[in-house]
Amino acid sequence: MIKKTFFALVLISGLLFNSIGILPVNAAAYGTSFTTSITYQNVGTADANVVILFYPEANGTPITITRPALRPLAGTSVYVGSLTELSAGFKGSAVINSDQPLVATLVQVASSTSSVKVRPLSNGFTTGGAEVGVPTVLKNTFNTNSIVVVQNVDTNGADLTLDFVPLSGSPVQLTLANLPSGAAKYYDLGQLTQLGTSFNGALKISAKKTGTSDPGNIVATAMELGTTSDAAYAFEGTTTSGTKVYMPSALCKLSGTATTAYAVQNVSTTDISVTVKYSSGINDGPFTIHSGGKQSFDGCAVNANGFLGSAIIEATGGNIVAVGKVYGGGLSTAFLGFTSGTSKVGLPYVRYTQTHWTDGTRQRAFIAIQNVGSTDIAAGQTTVKYFDKNGNLVGTHILSSIPIGGKVNSNASMVGSAANEFGYYSDGTFGGSAVVEGPTGSQLAVVVRIVTYVSSVEIAGEDYTGIPIP
C-alpha cells in the first residue's frame, strides 16, 4: 500500500526508466533507451525530509530510498540510473513522501550518443481521480506511437477500464484486474494488436476498487515517440475538465517553422461543440466532437504565417480537456491545457546556460506566463524568482503588465550575470528552480520550454506546465 508516513505525496505515474529501451529495437525515438531524472522542489517553509517509494511495473512491493533533506525553495534531482537499489532495466512508478509540500517534473534523458536530443517532460501529481482523460493517443499515425502509463494511487487494488475512442468507428475497450496500490501498468500502443494496424483518437481511463463498484483513484501519463524521427514528448492525463481551456502558446510557422496543434477531447456523455479562439482575434470552429472523442486544431488553419500568441478553447454542451503541441524546427513539445490558473506557480526544473549553449551539453528554459483571470494585471505585480540548488534567491524578474488573456515571457538571463549558468555548478551537480507569483486572486497559467542546441538552424525542445503552489 502507499504509506502515508509524511504530509505531502507526489505521485510519479510511470515513465520511470533505468537505462532501458522501450522496445528491443532502436528506430528513431521509438525504441530509444531513456533514463529518468526526477526533479523536485521544496515549496514549503521548512526543510523537507524526503522518502521515495519505487514500484516495479504492476508490483505493489516498493523499493524505499531515503533522500537528503531539501531546504525551502531548493530544487534538486535524482537520476534513476545512479540508484544502486534499482537494477538496470527497471521500469515502473514512484511515490515521493515528504513532510513539506513538493512539486516534481520527470525528465527522460537519452544517451549522450543518441540522435534524440529532446528530453520528454511530465509532471508528478498530488491527487488522482476515478476517471482520467488522455486527449490524444496514436498508433502508427503521423509516424508516431504512444505509450500510456496508468498508476493506481488508491490504498486498494484497482480494476481498470480503458476506452480507446477513434476519430471514426467504434471504441476499443481493454480491461485490467487488480493493479496493486502504488503500481503502474504500461500500455505501448505500438504493441497493442487490439487497435489494429493504426489508431488515431483519444483515451478515457476509469478505475474501480478491486472487486467493487466503488470509484478508484488513478493518475496517468502519456509519451509520444517518432517511429521515423527523433521527435519525443510527454504530457499528463487529467481529471480536471471544463468548458474553457487556456493555451499559453499559439503559433503559426514562427521563424518559418514552429506551429502549434491542439488535441481537444470531449469528456462528457453527449456530443458537444468546440471553438478555438486565438489572441489574433480569429476563431477556428465550431466543430462537433462525439462523447469521448477528439478534434484536432492546427495553428496555421486560420492564422497567418509568423503568428505568435495564445488561445482559449471553448466548449458548448459539455466539458473538455486538451493538450497542445509545438512542432517544426526541431521542436517536438507537448503541454496540458489549463482550465484555470493560480496566483503562485512552482517550476522545479529550470536551467540557463551561456557558455555551454552551442556545445549542446546544457539547456535553456523559457517561461511563458498567461493571465487567464478576469482582470488585467498591472506592471510590477507579477514576479519570477529564481532559486539555486540550496534555495538561495539568485534574482527576481519583475514582469510587465499582463492583460486578460495576454502573456509575458521570462528566463534566468533576465536577472543578470549571476544566472549565467543557472542550475549548473562547478562540482558537476545540478539544481535550479523558480516560483512565479502574481497578486492575490490572480489566475496565471505557466508553461516552461526546455531547449537544447542541436545546430545553427535547429534546437530540440519540450514543454511542461507550471505546478500550482497551495
Structure description:
This protein has 470 residues and is mostly beta strands. It has three domains: 222 residues, Sandwich (Hypothetical Protein Tm1070, Chain: A); 93 residues, Hypothetical Protein Tm1070, Chain: A (Sandwich); 125 residues, no CATH class. The protein is built from no helices and 34 strands. The strands form eight sheets. Strands 2, 3, 6, 8 and 9 form a five-stranded antiparallel sheet that branches. Strands 29-28-31-26-34 form a five-stranded antiparallel sheet, with no helix packed on it. Strands 1-7-4-5 form a four-stranded antiparallel sheet, with no helix packed on it. Strand 32 and strand 33 form a beta hairpin. It is globular. The N terminus is likely disordered.
